[in-house]
Amino acid sequence: MPKVTVILPNYNHQDYIEERIESILNQEFRDFELIILDDASIDKSPENIRKFLTDSRIIEFVINDQNSGSTFIQWEKGLQKAQGEYIWIAESDDIADKRFLSELITVLDNDPKVGIAFCPSVWIDDNGNKILEPEHEAEEDFWQGNQLIQNEFLAGNLIYNASSAVFRKDLIKKVNFSQIRQFKYTGDWLFWVQLISDVQVKRIGKRLNFFRRHPNNVSFKSERDGLQFIEGIKIALNIFKNYPISWTKKRKTMLFWTKKLFLSENVDKEAVLQKMPFEVKTYFAFFKLFGK
What pTM value is reported for the model? Predict the structure, then answer.
């Protein structure tokens, strides 16, 4: 049985898929299996992927007959096939430093209480040029999962890029994919919330993941459609329901999301507000009236 299962879901990433596969196959850590799942791409992705199928670590290459409409359906399919002790969901437009697996697996091997290990990211553009190194994630850090959910995850998805994380396969039993499939763009956020309860989470201090930002990736679409707000509030409410969040903290959380929406650009705020809770609508009206 391999130590790690790498799940590579792809859809129409012909321009990035070869570099992505190379960054996986060239890892210093070699004991892994690779499952590639193509969601009925209509570009040259399948053709580009086939160039690598002679590598014995690629144990499956599955092309859907029809597009599933959700990357999280692909995640679930890959997890059902996975045989490794650890899982790495490697998004098809990102890149990994060759030390990525060796560094994160060392963390997991050295401490069985750590359920997820992840690293900071370098944000890159279409051509692989660096555009950002988020300062807030520069330092090594360590959290108890339940506390992390009740703090950081109320304000957004701390592990915003799945490619940056490796986690224990046995945690999957806590994941409710029927819930996650209801989220078009922020299902990964809910995935981590379900996964990290009752385990520890460790972020190392080395930037070993390259998160590609381009007009067709999920993050940009989410921002344009305002789904980061519509779905983000639903996840916050889910946390309210399942964790002992104080009344004051609930109000602060709703104010936080309202202000974030108020200050956002390139979003149809009125359309988003129609799908928000009454409390957010009330706070938004206050911000609009007083301009802050």
Answer: 0.94
